[in-house]
Here is the input.
Amino acid sequence: MRGFVLITMLCCLVVLVAFLGLAVDSGYLELVKTRMQTAADAAALGGAEDIKANGATNVVTAAQTDASLNGFTDGSHGVTVTVHSPPSGGYSTGDSTGVEVVVAQQVPTYFMSIIGSPSVNVQARAVARLGSGTTCLHILDSAAASAFSASGGANVQISCGVQVESSSASAFAVSGGTTVTASTIAVYGGSSVTGGSTVKPTPITGAARQGDPLAYIPAPAVGGCDFTDTNLGNGRTVTLPPGVYCNGITLTNGANVTFSPPGTYILKGGGLDVGGGVHVSGSAVTFYNTAASGYTYKPFNFHNGAVVSMTAPTTGPMAGILMFQDRSIVSSLVNSFLGGTSITLVGALYFPTTPLSYSGGTNITGTYSIIVAKTAVFSGGCVMNNDYSSLPGGSPIRGGAILSE
Here is the structure.
């Protein structure tokens, strides 16, 4: 009888030790899983923030670096850190700011190895993307006085926020009985409001810099010349197809021009020049302004009396982008919208390294408008709305990174 009890106790003890071992291993694996999830979350968020700051070129390195800082280094101790941008699955597969990170490792066990399971594959997945921003006018020059300038009695109405990156004491300058209204006004440097002007709300000075909010958008590819006749709209009624326009596009003498949708119009030197009395329309179009050897850069120019109605694409890589200046071009030539021009522009005007000017009674309207420019001068009316309902992904201006999966 005593032998039976001893044998039973030994058997029970073995079972109890096995369960204890399983509990210890399970607890350890759960601890690794928790730490791994933290690393995946941090890596996805870091990758999305890097896209916002620098574009998608180094997103893999940025995400893997953040994973390493949280204890999981790709290629070390059996760890793999896989990065996909856009994500390979889930709800954010079409979001170019989305970053998916999968951290995996074969984790050795202690007690479970006795029953033939020396290691267990543990993995964690996270997806982050850039949330919607609340601003729509960004001035990027880091030092210019009057980087944002409004004068001459202009009425500038902005339904969203203004961000000015200049360190100048007069980075945000309003004078001459001008009215500027926005939801928020944030200035890295200082502001100057004179001459009976009205600015609402009061600018917040000393605000943190945000950088280029459209840096994440890749520039379109530029191929060989499809068209070299610059004055395609000389007094004619014409429909122009997407393609590479070497020496740009000049529209004169009351031309009536339709830009055929959808597509990207590459201005390879020469810019886009719309003369007085010209009627221009186009939907789901983007104009990319660049230059090349033999094709000199020129800006966008809309002259007095032009009538323009154009909208950006609502889907695809250029969703929400109407005019896009090559980031590598630095020029003092002004992208100008002159007095008396009647313009409806729906989309972003993206001139990160060149100036922008609205002058002499220009009236800019549209369901939504976005301006990102080196500097901006307003001496004519401008209405910037923020109805992004036509864009499935919302505004192309992105805020901070958020975890979505």
Q: What stands out?
A: Helices lie at 2-54, 59-69. The first strand starts at residue 79 and ends at 84.
